[in-house]
Design goal:
This protein has two domains: about 160 residues, PurM-like, N-terminal domain (60s Ribosomal Protein L30, Chain: A); about 180 residues, Phosphoribosyl-aminoimidazole Synthetase, Chain A, domain 2 (Alpha-Beta Complex), CATH 3.90.650.10. About 30% of the residues lie in helices and about 25% in strands. The chain contains eleven helices and 13 strands. An eight-stranded mixed beta sheet has the order 7-9-6-10-8-11-12-13, with helices on both faces. A five-stranded mixed beta sheet has the order 1-2-5-3-4. A hairpin with a 4-residue loop joins strand 11 and strand 12. Helix 4 packs parallel to helix 5 and helix 6 crosses helix 9. The chain is globular.
């Protein structure tokens, strides 16, 4: 997987043709915040073409999956070593505004291990990289507190890392992790077995997680000049506390589902691109989503203050769904029962359909998605809340 920021993009395993119009018009408001997804896509495509030339054809180091899934796997002495890297993006700015650094490390762990489990791997260890404008021992200790808390939740070790003082490059700090895990080569999951009628089980998120913070910051702090400690009556906590809420870590229950549910077809981390992440499965299927969760109150607040339509909100944010499992219909009840034992709010939110173009339709919002773009099917602009 290749990314350039938590607020930006992934590269799904899809065809380049589109019947939804040019992706150049996507996220026009988001582009104004400094996040140009179209340019990032173009650059990433160039990188992919080059790095694939480094892949060995077979044997040790063979790369098992195409670039574009949530993590990748290399072959080592007959077993699979899973690898992924990710960071928390501009959520670090919220931590700085709050002067609270002891949870951002949880997000760093979550962004990596939640991706890794999507290939069926058990996360084992993580290394971190902190780029900082200037050293602050207390702040770095707080970041470590969060990293260790996240590691405990995911049952992984923190086996090393790097701290770089880059005052001429970095304004504030950046936090990135790289995780390693293990998966049997014959148990790698890429969604290739997903079939017509398979059920999508959605797990409710706990809020914004670590995506879309550039748009949220622009809406609240730049356009409308709210303070970080502003309290909207719709929210239980202050604005800063809500935006800094740590990303949920879905590892323990996912490991049990991988072990207990025979009909598990795909695991989908709902990050950048929202429910469009479903289309990253290898099978040529689309998804009909007909029973979504009501978005958390923070989402309609962001939409109102950013003045963007439903389509852009569902392209940028998780909108209340943090993770998905695609399972054989006969395993729906077992999957949900396992999730509920881990105190997750989970339910069937949709199903797979044959579709070589891999559309994602959200019926309750009248949205049809392709690649990285949603459009309203009746062409009108609609907002919720």
């Amino acid at each position: 997987m290749v990314r350039n920021d938590r607020d930006v993009v992934t590269l799904p395993n899809v065809s380049s043709e589109s019947d939804l119009g040019s992706v150049e018009v996507r996220h026009e408001v988001y582009k104004q915040t400094g996040v140009d997804t179209a340019e990032a896509d173009a650059g990433l495509n160039h990188i992919i073409k080059r790095v694939q030339n480094t892949w060995p054809k077979n044997g040790i180091g063979r790369v098992a999956l195409p670039i574009g899934y949530f993590a990748n796997v290399i072959e080592l002495d007959g077993t699979g070593i899973a690898l992924c890297t990710d960071g928390v993006g501009s959520k670090t700015i919220i931590a700085e505004m709050m002067q609270k650094y002891d949870t951002i490390g949880i997000d760093c762990v979550a962004m990596n291990v939640n991706d890794m489990i999507c290939v069926g791997a058990t996360p084992l260890s993580l290394v971190d990289y902190i780029a900082i404008e200037r050293a602050d021992a207390s702040m770095l200790d707080d970041v470590a507190i969060g990293l260790c808390a996240g590691a405990k939740m995911a049952n992984v070790s923190i086996s090393g890392g790097e701290t770089a003082q880059l005052k001429d490059i970095v304004n504030g700090f950046d936090l990135v992790g790289m995780a390693v895990g293990r998966v049997d080569l014959d148990k790698i999951i890429s969604g290739k077995e997903v079939a017509d009628g398979d059920v999508v089980v959605g797990v409710r998120s706990n809020g914004v997680h670590s995506n879309g913070l550039s748009l949220a910051r622009n809406a609240f702090f730049e356009k409308h000049h709210y303070r970080i400690n502003h309290r909207f009556e719709e929210l239980e906590f202050t604005l800063g506390e809500e935006l800094l809420r740590p990303t949920d870590i879905y590892v323990p229950e996912a490991i049990e589902i991988l072990q207990q549910v025979k009909g598990i077809k795909a695991l989908i981390n709902i990050t950048s691109d929202g429910l469009l992440n479903l289309a990253r499965v290898e099978a040529k299927v689309g998804f009909e989503i007909d029973h979504i969760f009501e978005p958390h109150p923070i989402f309609p607040l962001i939409q109102h203050h950013a003045d963007v339509p439903d389509s852009e909100m569902f392209e940028v944010f998780n909108m209340g769904i943090g993770f998905c499992y695609v399972v054989d219909p006969k395993d729906e009840a077992l999957t949900i029962s396992i999730l509920r034992r881990y105190n997750r709010e989970a339910r069937r939110i949709g199903y797979a359909v044959p579709d070589p173009k891999r559309h994602v339709r959200i019926r309750e919002r009248n949205l049809l998605g392709y690649h990285k773009t949603f459009r309203n099917e009746d062409r009108s602009v609609r907002k919720f809340g």
